[in-house]
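Hi Y.,

Following your request, here is the sequence exactly as I used it, all 401 residues.
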Amino acid sequence: MANYNVGISAAYDSEFGFQLFIGGTGVQLVAGDTLTFSASFNGYSGTASVSNFSSGVFTNTSNLSLTNGQSAVKTIKSGATLGSFSLTFSATAQSAQSKSFSVISSVDTTPNAFSFTDITDAAPSVLYNHNSFIVSGINAAATISISGNGAQFAVNNSTTGWRTTSTTVSNGDRVYVRMNSSSLYNTTVSTTLTIGGVSDVWSIKTVLDPGNGLLIPLGISSGGISASDIMGLFGGATFEIDKYYKGGGRVPNISQNAAIPTSGAIAFSNFYSSYSSLYFTKYPGGMFAGRDTGATPGGSLTLTSEDVSHYTIGYGPDMRDNIEVRHTILSSSFADANYSITPSNYTSWRSASRQLTFSANVSGTVDKEYNISVKVEIRHKLKPTYIISATFNMYLSFFGL
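Below is the corresponding structure, written out as tokens. Let me know if you'd prefer a different format.
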């Protein structure tokens, strides 16, 4: 069983006179634990009293009267009443103070499970912060630690509280985690956060090497060149200079862009003969939606494929400002005609309404399936001969018979 120290000190304050200070309160106790009350006075010759020891909690309920240097021990009884209780501390010519403690049935330092959302399209050498979470399911302090790739965590303080060494957390504490992505393309780094024996792994994977994408030339090697020319190739609504450094948010760090600096002074002429890269940083995967018409008869299902939510395009998130999309249905299987595919011009190149929505509706309790295989093509608006494509399925399933 554990022992907890409760320090009682009295000291003289030039403004307020003698002051009584109590330390070590608020702890959680189980049967057999002990509280050691210790008095330490500075310039105070009186006594300190501790009272209100409940017979439902302690093996001995007599009050304590301590002088400087004295100590006394109280023990939590077997079958002690669970919950919070208060003890009263007082000293001569001082107002009494009430301090809280609590009794729990057993120490539980195993938290409820927590989980991280992996990142699969990270930029290289970027510090990523994960969404914070609240520790739950424990009633005593639990050890928290982190390992792997220099990741850090913070407890209740995401400004100055970052650390790599272990500490403890309590129920209700908020935990933050951060980690740098790899400096290399198409590379995964991971870290493991552990609280009270419960762990989860957080992984960050960088995007594919833009040098392996479809390289698109600016097409200007001398003479006049403007910000519009540069934004037209690399994306962006405004010419934010930091995003047009090589390796920045819009310009890939590839050998064809050797003349573009990574920092410092930059000139439009640095972009002569430069290239962007068009590729999927996340490929579109198969899509599925199901509905149990046995539980709830009838109803509808809808799937929507669009960039950002279903797939992502590089290089850089602003490349999506410079693309057009079209879709082709490669094959299909429909239970009946109660389906729709929108927009109506999905087979045409378009920069607006770039999503593809597939939906179906049924009545009653049925088993029906609707399936399409789709090719999505993406091209650069200003360089329309540069096209990439991918295929995926969209599957709607009604069941319940």
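The mean pLDDT is 91.

Thanks again,
Q.
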